[in-house]
Amino acid sequence: MDILLTFMDDPSSIRSVIYTTNAIERTIKEIRKRLKPMNSLNSLEAAEKIVYLTIQDFNERWAERKLRGFAEAQEALERMFEERYC
């Protein structure tokens, strides 16, 4: 049970960035939104292509964005893992 709470040892600025799933949930919602109007797809490849293109679109739009609160978390992470950032 203790291993499940190890993230509580991290600074509070990092915790919300670690356990949030908002970006994942938003991506799944967008994929469903794009697949729903297409009642039937010709093949599994067609569905995979739509999913791939949707994720590519998200990657391009979100490439320069940071998660809310990540600026503070990034500073704390850099202090925690200073040897990796130098």
Top keywords for this entry?
single chain, 86 residues, mainly alpha, 5 helices, 65% helix, 0% strand
Poorly predicted regions are: none
Element-by-element helix/strand order = HHHHH
Largest sheet, in brief, is: none
Q: Share of helix among residues?
A: 55-70%
Q: How many beta-strand elements?
A: 0
Work out the helix count: 5
Strand content: under 5%
Taking all Cα atoms into account, the compactness measure Rg is 18 Å
**Helix and strand composition category:** mainly alpha
Task: State the domain count.
Answer: 1
End-to-end span in angstroms?
A: 35 Å
Average pLDDT level = 78
Write the layout of secondary structure elements.
Layout: H1 12-19, H2 22-35, H3 44-62, H4 70-80, H5 82-85
Helix pairs in contact: 1-4, 2-3
